[in-house]
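Exam review. A common question shows you a sequence with its structure tokens and asks you to describe the fold in words. Practice with the pair below. Do the first one on your own.
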Amino acid sequence: MVSLWFSLPKGSAGERPDVKKELSVLLRPQVLSALLTTVLGAGAMFTLYTYISPVLNTLTHASSLFITAMLVLIGVGFSLGNYLGGKFADRSVSGTLKGFLLLLMAIMLGDPAAGAIPGRGGHQHDCLGRSNLCGGSAAADAGYARSA
């Protein structure tokens, strides 16, 4: 705070914002839709990250090294998904949202079957991580684009 005090230019107080007007943007259907998509996507992402260790441990009796590798793989998927989501959203926000939400749904429906096949669970969770973050990036872009 001290460094901000000294580094920011001194200026006039300016006009006071109308808080009610600023918050009224949150009631627009487009903004609510973008917020809901973001919340659901983030919920799915954190659910995956929270429960992967107990699920792999209980259902597949995976070693701690394998579980650690899966968590790293999910992190890589999150990073790639965030990058790809931004790139795809630059082309088409709506198309990216629809495409990645459908992909997430397909991955989640296929998750039980993939978990039963030895060696396929890791690939499945990496794809889930990527898809989740792609959709999240697009949802964030949609919120900015529609509220402007």
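Now try the second one, then compare your answer with the model answer below.
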Amino acid sequence: MIETATQSPLFTPPLNIFGGLLERIVEQTHLPAWVVVAGGILVASAVILGVISLAAMILIYAERKVAGHIQSRLGPMRVGWHGILQSIADGLKLLVKEDVVPANAHRFLFSFAPALVLVGALVPFAAVPFADIFVVANMDAALFFVLAFAALEVIGVIMAGWASNSKWSLYGGMRLAAQMMSY
């Protein structure tokens, strides 16, 4: 039996963030409903990422301006129009920096650990309902989901300390993991 777009559970109110637009796309293009929903989720994610990135850029600019005034620094005050080029220059400098891996380190785990920490910090937001019609993952066990993925941060920190093949880095990772679990 072929389900129509209106009968699909993919278009229930928690996932219908586009107000019927996805249903019309399915009816007009005859694409499978899951393809259209996946595309809609990607578009919504891109919009959210864009808004968050724009807010971060504005807040970083404001913070740099305040710190520049307090410290009487020239870069944030006079580079470009009101110091706007200083943040761009620092961003370009960050992009061309070398990724230094210690000689005896486990290369894959040392490079993978920060990504694991980032996943542990970002994935729990999928269980947070931002509005009645904007819920990425409507689940009954959202608290357990958040706690389970937040534990990835601790694993990533210990992995980074161990992968560096230095006992002092491992001690630091264990100390940070204990602090993360305590607070």
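Model answer, second protein: The mean pLDDT is 81. The chain has two domains: 13-97, 100-182. Full marks require stating both points clearly.
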